[in-house]
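Let us work through a complete example step by step.
Step 1: write down the sequence.
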Amino acid sequence: MTQATFYYDLGSPYAYLTAERISEIVAGPVVWQPVSLGGLFKANGRSSWSLGDVERRRSGMAEVERRAREYGLPAVRWPEPWPTDYLLAMRVATYAYTVERGREFTMQAFRHAFRHGRDLAVREHVLQAAADADLDPRAAGEAAGDLEIKLRLRSATEAAHALGVFGVPTIAVAGELFWGDDRLGDAAAALGEGV
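Step 2: predict the structure and record it as C-alpha cells.
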C-alpha cells in the first residue's frame, strides 16, 4: 500500500494548518516526519517569507489567519517573537516519535504556538507541550540534548532535501511532492491512485 509522508517544522504556521486537517483529508497511511526548516533553507540558499520584507510578512500572516477561519479552526495567535529558534522543539518532536507520542506532541506544540501564542524557543513552553502530550517533560528535555536525537533530526532533514523537499509543509506520495497546506487534496488524490 502506498503511504504519504508529511514533512513539517513546528515553526511553520502553514504546517500547523496542515497538521490540523491532514487526517480528515488524506485517508491513507501518513508518516509524520519532523525536519529542520532552517536546515532546508540553508541547503537550498533560501529564507522564510516571514523574514525581511515587512509587507510580505504582514500579508503572509493575514493569509494564514484567513485560511484558519476558512478551515473552521480557532483564530491564530502569533507567538512573540515569531519566527524564532525551533531547534529544541524539533528535537523533542524527534524524540517523541521514538516513544510513540510524536503526533500527540506535535499537535500540542503546534497548538501552544499558533492557538495560544507561546514561543516554542522557550524551554518551559516546549516541556509543557510535552507534558500535555503525556510525555515525561524531564525525559523529553534530556533527550533533546542527546546526540542520537540530534543526528536523527539532521539525517531526516538531509534525506528530505535529497528528495527535493525545499519547504514545509510538504507531503510526499510515491516520489511526488506536494508543497503547501493548499495541496492536501492533491496529495490525497495521489495517495488514492497509488493504493
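Step 3: interpret the result. The mean pLDDT is 94.
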